[in-house]
Amino acid sequence: MEFLNRIELKGVVGRAEINSFNNSQVCNFSVVTEYSTIDKERNSIIETAWFNVSAWSGRNNITDLYNIQRGSWVHVIGRLRVRKYTTQTGEERSAMDVIAGKVVLLPKEEEASTMQPQRD
Question: Do the domain assignments include residue 1?
Fold first, then answer.
């Protein structure tokens, strides 16, 4: 049996910044997604989740990094990476990031017609 570490997101870009690292460029951006469900009282509940994404230049299937900006709709396929760090107060924490293997900017006309919260 082989291992699998894959995540797929469609959502809206929050913050976006491009940095240089070892002669490569990386675009670090956040993506917000929504998931809609209904509780026992038939009330609609929308769960919002934010993901931190890193997309490296020179990788296959990465669109132009300079076009990723706040408010853009994106489709991201990648893998999860867990990193551990220590806060200034000495507390150990962990965070989960998405390392993008494919990033596609979605066209404006697709945003309105297909971007709805997922439902149970």
Answer: no
